[in-house]
Amino acid sequence: MSNNQTLTSEELAACFRALSNPHRLRIFQEQLNCCPPGTRWRAGEDGIAVCVGAISESMDLAPSTVSHHLKELRQAGLVQMERKGRQVECWIEPGVVDALARFFQDRRLACCLPETQKETP
What we know:
The chain is built from five helices and two strands, in the order ααααββα.
């Protein structure tokens, strides 16, 4: 997804559905806090690394539950995943984060600016 893509209503709904679960929202927030969008979140020695096992321990969830939540985030287009042997590298899709930010920014501008300051599409 390019950084300038606009999400369809269906894609937005999928993102919001995925993020409506508290565990998925927390996983997504932790990824945002640990790594800038587009940066891989992986097991390793760089100090930024996190794997499913570490997430499951920090959230007190079974690794299979964390894997399920990551799969749901991936299906919604919020994260990308790539298996590297026994480890799974995850990263937040930057285009989706930008599109979600634009969605809220556009709505804020549309409802809060005086009519004379609103942009016409």
